[in-house]
Design goal:
With 274 residues, this protein is of the alpha+beta class. The protein has one domain (30-133, 145-264): Jelly Rolls (Sandwich), CATH 2.60.120. The protein contains seven helices and eleven strands. The chain has helices spanning 8-13, 18-31, 42-58, 81-85, 92-100, 251-256, 259-264, and strands at 33-36, 72-73, 105-114, 149-155, 166-168, 189-190, 193-194, 196-198, 205-209, 214-216, 225-233. The strands form three sheets. A six-stranded antiparallel β-sheet has the order 1-9-4-11-3-2. The chain is globular. The N and C termini lie far apart (39 Å). The structure holds 2-oxoglutaric acid. 2-oxoglutaric acid is lined by residues 112, 120, 126, 166, 214-216, 227.
Length: 274
């Protein structure tokens, strides 16, 4: 992924050649997802799992700021400096900005820590279908649909076939439809594209178009899966930090943020409708 002729300092920092970034962005837009292997080390995964466990202990799911169930926590950047400081890690952020624009922002930052009791196992697109099509109509292949938001999914544990892998139906972000109701024993498909299980090594990151049909498969093993997400949106796509217009980024987060991180937290230059 990283150009072998890049200067050693760039390779160390994980910075990719701009042509590689553009190629990854194009592939993401075409297929609706992109696997970026080995973005962080196994040691970093262990550090993040420790941070996630601490947050689960310190911030109950019933806290005013939370509210999504025992196995999920949101707004992680408020509770962990390490997690906050990785919102702009290369090459993930470079591909994200190539897709969403250099003025994109973070819209959500959560973690699914799940075992066989829990999974987001319904096939869905995030929120709603944004470019709906009538039955029998497909988008012209020459049209590249704008991507308004995407998820970066950071696997902090190895995820094998029985460990609840994320599953996607490639190209379905172009379908203009919700996934069809599917018998739980079967997987949906879109045209000639069947569902794919994203088996992962700890440290891999997947970028997922928010309009692609996806789900977390039920966990069948005795393992606990840690899947952390930084989700991003175009400037015109609003952040989802409850309580929304009343939300204030905490001072301690802002004090530690770099200029790029401040922008990702929503501190934009003025634009239209200011
Ligand atoms: O748990 C997963 O792998 C999928 C998560 C998901 O579908 C979601 O957060 O919308």
């Amino acid at each position: 992924m990283i150009a072998t002729d890049a200067p050693a300092s760039d390779r160390d920092r994980g910075i990719c050649n701009p042509n590689d970034i553009q190629a990854m962005a194009r592939r993401f837009l075409r297929e609706g997802y992109l696997v970026i292997p080995a973005v962080i080390s196994r040691d970093a995964c262990a550090m993040f799992r420790g941070e996630v466990d601490r947050i689960f202990d310190e911030v109950p799911c019933t806290a005013e700021d939370q509210g999504y169930g025992e196995w999920l926590r949101v707004k992680l950047f408020q509770y962990s400096r390490e997690i906050a400081s990785h919102m702009d890690l290369s090459p993930v952020i470079d591909v994200v900005e190539a897709v969403l624009g250099a003025n994109c922002h973070l819209i959500s930052n959560n973690v699914v820590r799940n075992d066989r009791r829990y999974a987001i196992s319904e096939w869905h697109v995030d929120e709603e279908v944004l470019f709906p099509l009538p039955n029998g109509v497909e988008h012209d292949e020459r049209v590249e649909l704008p991507c308004l938001s995407l998820n970066s999914q950071w696997y902090l544990t190895d995820v094998g076939p029985d460990d609840g892998p994320t599953q996607v139906v490639p190209y379905s972000h172009r379908s203009g439809r919700m996934p069809p109701p599917t018998d739980p024993a079967r997987q949906p498909s879109y045209g000639k594209h069947g569902a794919v299980s994203l088996l992962a090594k700890a440290g891999d990151v997947v970028l997922q178009h928010a309009q692609i049909w996806h789900r977390g498969a039920p966990v069948l093993s005795d393992r606990t899966r840690y899947m952390m997400q930084y989700s991003y949106g175009r400037r015109c796509f609003s952040q989802r930090f409850h309580p929304f217009t009343g939300y204030r980024v905490p001072e301690h987060v802002l004090a530690a943020a770099t200029p790029r991180q401040r922008r990702l937290l929503g501190f934009h230059e003025r634009g239209p409708w200011g």
